[in-house]
Amino acid sequence: MNDTFYNAVDGVSLSLRKNEILAIVGESGCGKSTLATSIMGLFDQRTTRIQGEILYQQKNLAALTEEQLNEVRGLEISMIFQDPLSALNPLMRVGDQIEEGLIYHTDLSKEERKQRVLTLLQQVGIQDPKHVARQFPHQLSGGMRQRIMIAIAICCKPKIIIADEPTTALDVTIQAQILDLLVELQKETGAGIILITHDLGVVAEVADRVVVMYAGEIVEEAPIKELFLHPQHPYTRSLFHSIPQMNKKSDRLNVIEGIVPSLIHLPRSGCRFADRIPWIPQEAHEENPQLHEISPGHFVRCTCWKSFYFNTRKGERYV
């Protein structure tokens, strides 16, 4: 049996404030969802290990037993999963699934729980809560299922909500409705929300602060306006540069050169983005890249951002 472990999330340190939406951005495989499941304790202990601390109200979640975590999950910290069809139980009516958290965490009577379920369904924008509560997940649309997931997440009024790609696979109109709903609920409850996404449009719409991840590390962190106006890390700038611009006529999309390294081949020293910007001199990178605060609340990893420029060859942009 191979007992070798590779750090999927490496040296990540972040904080979440009350009444704040913190967006975590990065491409697939950068460690966003691993970070979320680690916070919730939803990982296979046979294949995953956590080193470090996950602090919540003077408790280290990483050190809690499964029974102790169950007292926190759903009540104080909850999660909205990116695929509600696989997250919901196909054999249970959705009303019963929402009620489960109330049974576990509250002493409400059966009648009070049923009324709370209907109130929650109305709160997440479902027009006929009595009818929908009796339906099974497969009978609902993708947008409706995601609303059910949100109702489950907020049933006990948690202080922290982790939303992992909550608008994936939804059409643009439904995406906007779900985002508006999250913002509205956040304002009502004062909960802190960790929004995990790869969609910069979603980030611009709702986030207060942004953390950009690449290859398991935080490479940039800043308030939303600062990041969009003054992105600094080469990876962040490349992400913005790869977004199609309606005001520019071009038959080519700007792409980021190279590929994300696998966990096995991930460099554990030096700048992890260096291979994708080979025209930047090696001496521009730190041997042990650190996060540097370049302006209030704006952190950038490595010093290579000072030397970065977009490479142009034969009139074509490669980054």
Automatic annotation (TrEMBL):
Topology relative to the membrane: Peripheral membrane protein
Entry keyword set: ATP-binding, Cell membrane, Membrane, Nucleotide-binding, Transport
GO CC, alphabetical: plasma membrane
Signal peptide: none
GO MF, any single term: ATP hydrolysis activity
GO biological process, one term: peptide transport
Similarity section: Belongs to the ABC transporter superfamily.
Protein name: ABC transporter ATP-binding protein
Organism expressing this protein natively: Lysinibacillus antri
